[in-house]
Amino acid sequence: MTNMPISAELVAEHNAASRDALSDEYDSLGRKLGRRGIAIDAIKEKVKSFGVAVPSWGTGRGGTRFAKFPLAGEPTNIHEKLEDCAVIHQLGRSTPGVSPHFPWDCVDDYTALREEANAYGLVFDAVNSNTFQDQPGQAHTYATGSLSSTVEATRQQAIDHNVECIEIGKQIGSKALTVWVGDGTNFPGQQDLGRSFDRYLAAASQVYSALPGDWKMMLEHKMFEPAFYSSVISDWGSSLMAAQQLGDQCKCLVDLGHHAPNVNIEQIVARLHHAGKLGGFHFNDSKYGDDDLDSGSINPHQLFLVFNELIEAELSPGKGFDPSYMIDQSHNVTDPIESMLSSAETIAGCYARAAMVDRDALHAAQDGNDVMLAFRTLRTAYETDVTPILAMARDELGGAIDWLGVYRSSKYRDRKAQERKAVGLGAGIV
Ligand SMILES: [Mn+2]
C-alpha cells in the first residue's frame, strides 16, 4: 500500500474509536460459534483470503435507457476509475482485482497502466470485450449482431476486437477474457435461431484459438436486452453447449441478474460445476428483470444459497474449481464507491455464512432424508450475524471497521468533484 487515496491516519483514528466494541462483539460471537464446534478465527482467515473483483465501469454512475444522472466527482477515465477502486479496496480490503472493459479503458501505455494499478495494491482481473455498441470510426456496425452477424466482415471485426482484448490483457497481467454479446433478435423470423448460433460458434472459436495456454475464456449468457425476442447466448444451456464445443479453457460465467425470474440459480451453479464449466460470477441482484441492483440487496438468501453450492464445489472439486468472482451492478442513485463497499461486504458475508454450515450434519440429514434437519442446518448458518467477523478481518488487514463512516468523513467525493472534470456519459452506461 504505497499510494492510498484515503488518509491512513483517518482510518486508524476511526478504527481506534470502535475497536473495543468490535472486540466485545467478536468474542461473544466466537463463544457462540464455539458451542457449534466452529472456530471463529478459521472463518475470519477464510474471509481475509476471499476476494471479489470490481468492474472499472462500475465506478461511474450507471443509467437506464431513460436517463443517467451523473454524480459530481465521478471518474471519467481509467486512471480516475483506478483511484476509486483503490478507495474501495483500501477501506474494504476484499476487492484487489479490477476488471477492465475495452475500448472504454483504452490507453497508450498498458505497462504503465499495470504499474499504476499495482501502486494502489490492485491487479487486473478478467478483461471484457465490447461488441454490443459501435465506436467512433468503426468500419462495420453491430446493430444486427457481432460474433453472430450475417456479415462476414462484421464477424471478423468482432473477432479482431476480442483478440486485441487478449493482447491488452497480456500486458496488464490478466488471465481471462469475458465475452458477452448482445446478439439476438427483436422479431420472430428476423434470424434463423440455429444458424445464428452456428455463426457465433465459428467466430468464437477464432477468438478461443488466440487464447494463451494459461488463460480462460468466459461466456456470459443473458436472457434478454438488447434483444427482446431471442438472444444468441440466452441461458446456461446455450452457454454450456458453446463452452463445451469451444474447448477446455472455455467456461460459463453466471451473472445473477441474467436469468428468467425465479430460476433456481444455485442449481445452475451445481450443474455447471458438475460439467467442469463453472468459470465465474457477476454478482448483482434483481427484482423484476436484469435491473443490476446491489448484490444481496433484494435476495440475500439466494446469494447465500449460491455460496453454499460454491463451498460444496470447493470441497468436491471434481473436474476443477477456480471460479472468478466479480461485482457487476449498476449504481443509478448511490455513490458507486459506497455501493461496491456494501456489496463486497454482503458477498463476503454470504461466503462466511456458507463456510460455517455444518457439512457433516447437512450431508447426514440429506442422506437420511431428514428434511427439516437438513433445512435447519442451512438456516442456522444463514441466520448467523457475521458482521463482527467481517469487520475484524478488515481491521486486521488495515481496512476500515466502519467503512461508511470513514469514507464520509474523508470527503473524498467532494474533493474529486473539485479536481475532476464534469461528467458527460462518464464511465459508460451498464
Ligand atoms: Mn455481467
Automatic annotation (TrEMBL):
Which InterPro entries does the record associate with it?
L-rhamnose_isomerase, Xyl_isomerase-like_sf
Q: Which UniProt keywords apply?
A: Isomerase, Manganese, Metal-binding
The GO molecular function terms of this record are:
isomerase activity; metal ion binding
Cross-referenced PANTHER family:
L-RHAMNOSE ISOMERASE
Q: What is this protein called?
A: Sugar isomerase
Annotated organism of origin: Pontixanthobacter rizhaonensis
